[in-house]
Design goal:
Rossmann fold, globular, about 325 residues, Helicase, Ruva Protein, domain 3, 11 strands, alpha/beta
């Protein structure tokens, strides 16, 4: 997992803070590697996909996985959730799913003649939204407040959600039958969007060898206390002003591109910085490298870019806009 393009990070004002951070990163290195190992034992796919799950968890974000049916999206999420000592619920999105099926509702208690809250599956630490784009926009929007504010409002009463809170959603490509396009506001709530493709020939052979019988479930590795500590640690990872300026230039490139109607927003830039800091932590560093930003740029920005209708009809893709930004924008001014 060696990164290239590794200039020395600019020094911090307090060297002791960096030393303490390095010690904490080293202390958690074995734990993070154990999560990777447990997930990779069951999910046969790119290591970067497993790392993206950790990035979302440590940077308080949510993750959207897109791929055709049968490429183990749900298996990946279930396995990752098992490595966390936290509650887990799965929501199967269907065209007839109602918002209250997600958030819950008040029901009468015949013994006390009062209404009591029956909590929906959103009141869990890790929520799998399976095939999220098979439900209409009104139902999808039931997740918006929970994902952004970490709270749910039911009949005018607000209920906070317990931390850690993480939504891992899967969706089928828009070309599939019976799916709806996710609204821009919904897409913007996902820190990263990952495309899960078909495995390589070697990986598919490994799937056949591994999954002829049910594999042993993944073991719990991370506690809620571990996650809280790792999130604080991720927040403290150093990113130089030079690299922050690099992120600004990348997102501004997407806004000026001829094919874009709406480019990446300041929220997208912040998401990329948060994700890059979490990736640095996962890779055992207390500072961000350009490669952290480049590795996550497409996953953090592309789903937030709205193309011009003519460009989209012509086969243009938001990922291409980000690729061109990475090719044409330099690290330094």
């Amino acid at each position: 997992m060696n990164d290239v393009h590794a200039p020395s990070p600019e020094p911090e004002a307090d060297p002791s803070a960096s030393e303490d951070r390095s010690d904490a990163i080293e202390a958690y290195a074995e734990t993070l590697e154990a999560v990777r190992d447990e997930v990779s034992r069951i999910f046969i796919g790119p290591d970067e996909t497993v790392d993206a799950l950790l990035v979302a968890l440590l940077s308080r974000g949510h993750l959207l996985l897109e791929g055709v049916p049968g490429v183990a999206k749900t298996t990946l999420v279930r396995t990752f959730a098992r490595t966390i000592d936290a509650s887990f619920r799965r929501i199967q999105f269907t065209p007839d799913l109602l918002p209250s099926d997600i958030t819950g509702n008040y029901i009468p208690n015949l013994q006390t003649n009062e209404f009591v809250l029956r909590k929906g599956p959103i009141f869990s630490n890790v929520v799998l939204g399976d095939e999220i784009n098979r439900a209409p926009a009104k139902t999808q929007s039931a997740l918006l407040e929970a994902m952004q504010e970490r709270q749910v409002t039911i009949e005018g009463e607000t209920h906070p959600l317990e931390e850690p809170f993480l939504v891992l959603a899967t969706q089928n490509p828009i070309e599939q039958e019976g799916v709806y396009t996710l609204p821009e506001a919904q897409l913007d709530r996902f820190l990263l969007k990952i495309d899960v493709g078909y495995p390589t020939a070697d990986q598919e052979l490994e799937v056949l060898k591994t999954h002829q019988t049910e594999p042993e479930p993944a073991r719990q590795v991370l506690s809620a206390e571990d996650i809280a500590s790792l999130r604080v640690l991720a927040d403290s990872i150093h990113i130089s002003e030079e690299l922050q300026r690099y992120v600004v230039r990348l997102v501004r490139f997407t806004r000026r591109h001829n094919n874009t109607e709406i480019g990446a927003s300041p929220r997208a830039a912040l998401a990329l910085v948060r994700a890059a800091k979490a990736r640095a932590l996962i890779y055992g560093r207390d500072f961000v490298l350009p490669d952290d930003i480049r590795a996550l740029a497409s996953r953090a920005l592309a789903h937030r870019i709205l193309l011009e209708p003519e460009a989209e009809l012509g086969g243009a893709a938001a990922e291409t806009v980000v690729e061109q930004a990475l090719e044409q924008v330099s690290y330094s001014d």
